[in-house]
Amino acid sequence: MVDLTEAQKGVLEAEGHQLVTGGPGSGKTTVSILKAAKIGREALKPGQRILFLSFARATVSRVLEAIDEEKQITRKEKAVIEVDTYHAFFWRILKTHGYLVGFPRRMTILTPPNEAIALSGLRSGYKAASKLTDEEKAEKKEREEAERERLARDEGKVCFDLFATKVGDILHGSQKVRTLISTMYPFIVLDEFQDTSAEQWRVVEALGMGSTLIALADPEQRIFDFIGADPERLNHFRATFHPSEHDLAGDNHRSKGTEIALFGNDILAGQFRKSNYEGVHFEVFESNPNQAFTTLTTQVLQGRKRLIDGEKRDWSLAILVPTKKMTRLVSDTLREPFGNVPPIGHSAAVDMEGPILAAEIVAFLLQQGRQAGAFDDLVELLCSYYHGRGGSTPNKGDLEEAARLRAALAKWNASAAAGKPPPGNSVLKATATVHQAAIALVLTGDPDKDWRAVRAALEGSACSRLKEVATQVRNVRLLERGTQLRQGLMQDWRDAGSYRNALEITRRAFVQEHFATAHKPETGVIVMNMHKAKGKQFDEVIIFEGWPRRAKREIVANPDRIVTGNIRDGAMTQARQNFRVSVTRAKSRTTILTPRDDVCVLLLEDEA
Ligand SMILES: Nc1ncnc2c1ncn2[C@@H]1O[C@H](COP(=O)(O)OP(=O)(O)OP(=O)(O)O)[C@@H](O)[C@H]1O
């Protein structure tokens, strides 16, 4: 049991709306859980629950774990705390009350990859975002919004972007729905409140009319300005709800005995009070891929050894990097390190659009459909892969690739209709061969084995596109024991002796996966983008950034840096906050790797 600080005790005692602020690891989450348990004991009527709302599933996992760890909370108290993501909570409201805003009764979620596919045609009509004028940007945004709205109204396909806005409309438009929710959840905890977007804030305003709100926030961990977080958000909360305020300030329980939190604060201020910080280590590397990645690998191996030797169960070592590209590069390096180093087992938080659409192709091939049109369906899925894998920024080359495949398919089918063999030079030839090979595979009913067999057929094929699909699909970890996909496929096989519904089962599994909350927090070695680390904690953190490329000593490019281009520019507030969030995720040690010839500007003293 933890000894609560005076400020934490204040949170437990106060009534009414509350705003709990405090730095990283100051115990906001912990005290809010104890508070929820207390409310459960003292203030709830039968059937009522406390809702704990969070942005990301990963945070939800951590909160669930924290609840489990709180030994002084009884099982009964735990049962009344409902931890959920904004997405999942909003979807429940939309499914029940969406008709109030003109949605059809039957709705499905348009997942991000499928949303990307649906919008790619429209988006492809515009130049890259950086080259658009403000008017073009506004027009593009408006057209995207109209299309999302149309998909929802006419086809019942609702994408995540619409969730908050529509739930806001429902709640502000219907006192009945508001009352319903507040009766069910008289108390709502809002995690990471500083990152609430304008649309989410509108929902919160409505929820607070009937429910008591407890907002947890660290204004200086606000790292989502680019998608609508607002420095004024805490003031909006103050002005609307007049909450009692509880500042847990600089207490740091996460990395007690270290100076990690102190260092985090000094990054914000740009003034370093010490030359050494307990628990913070620096390492420089030479600006070339070989030496950079070798330095990283060495650090990872050392960190891993420390943690294994520490004999802690479920240890975690996070490698945090500034960009998605870097996540991929680091993951590739760990898979095949230089020299004689064996592969380093890890998980990587890569963008899932490509892998998910690749998984749809594997699932389709598992079906082994021999019907007329099966090949057309395969090519269509391949086109969808190209349309959707770039997410909200489809790549022109990918769209052209999809168009090329469609044109080739038309020719292919025209030949077949005329009783002629397929065109000898068709780009689809290799694809067709793989298709036939997949159909001919002898499957066993063990989804894991069969999935691998199809993947191997793609990997070993002469079709470069399907080869790439096989690589992408390796990022999907849906077939692990006990997952919905695995069970669904097993059931399918039992019912029919084949995987005839594999594609549908896979699609459903991804939606389910998005809402699943029962996951354990990540353990082992994990690679992720710095932005994704928010709200998490790891035993050790390694921060690794890109390096400058030079020609005749001059820097000609400087990609993947913590600060764009590693250029000092004004206050660099967002970059500082982002860096501080990453640094303070560690419990025992943070290691920072930066290029020797162009050290991260945030590590240099500000010129006063
Ligand atoms: N009063 C306390 N005494 C000792 N340990 C504590 C106390 N309060 C919290 N902790 C521990 O400190 C760690 C960090 O706490 P918590 O996750 O609640 O912080 P937080 O303010 O939510 O952090 P962040 O904003 O960085 O996500 C947890 O492991 C928690 O168990």
* Spatial strand order of the main sheet: 3-2-6-7-1-8
Helix content percent band: 40-55%
Radius of gyration equals: 26 Å
The chain-level mean pLDDT equals 90
Bound molecules: adenosine-5'-triphosphate
Number of structural units classed as domains = 4
Report the total helices: 23
Q: Report the sheet with the most strands, covering strand number, pairing sense and barrel closure.
A: 6 strands, parallel
Q: In the CATH scheme, what's the topology name of the largest domain? A: Rossmann fold
- What form results from the Cα inertia axes? globular
The CATH homologous superfamily name of the largest domain equals P-loop containing nucleotide triphosphate hydrolases
Binding site for ATP: 22-29
Domain UvrD-like helicase ATP-binding: 1-256
Pfam family, one: UvrD-helicase
Protein name: DNA 3'-5' helicase II
In short:
One of its GO terms (molecular function) is 3'-5' DNA helicase activity. The protein is of the alpha/beta class and 608 residues long. The protein has 23 helices and 16 strands.
Could you characterize the architecture of this molecule?
By secondary structure, the chain is an alpha/beta fold. It folds into four domains: 6-94 and 163-247, Rossmann fold (3-Layer(aba) Sandwich); 104-158, no CATH class; 259-350 and 521-595, Rossmann fold; 352-516. It is 50% helix and 13% strand. It has helices at residues 6-13, 28-42, 57-69, 75-79, 86-97, 112-124, 134-155, 160-173, 175-184, 198-210, 233-241, 260-269, 289-309, 324-335, 353-366, 374-388, 396-417, 429-440, 447-459, 464-473, 484-496, 502-515, 573-583; strands at residues 18-21, 50-54, 81-85, 108-110, 157-159, 187-190, 212-217, 244-247, 280-285, 316-321, 347-348, 524-529, 538-544, 549-551, 554-557, 586-595. A six-stranded parallel β-sheet has the order 3-2-6-7-1-8, sandwiched between helices. A six-stranded parallel β-sheet has the order 9-16-13-10-12-11. A two-stranded parallel ribbon has the order 4-5. Helix 10 (198-210) links the parallel strand 6 (187-190) and strand 7 (212-217). Helix 6 crosses helix 15 (353-366). The longest helix has 22 residues, at 134-155. It starts with 5 loop residues before the first helix and ends in a 13-residue tail after the last strand. The model has no long low-confidence stretch (mean pLDDT 90). Bound molecules: adenosine-5'-triphosphate. Keywords: ATP-binding, Helicase, Hydrolase, Nucleotide-binding. This is DNA 3'-5' helicase II. GO terms for molecular function: 3'-5' DNA helicase activity; ATP binding; DNA binding; hydrolase activity.
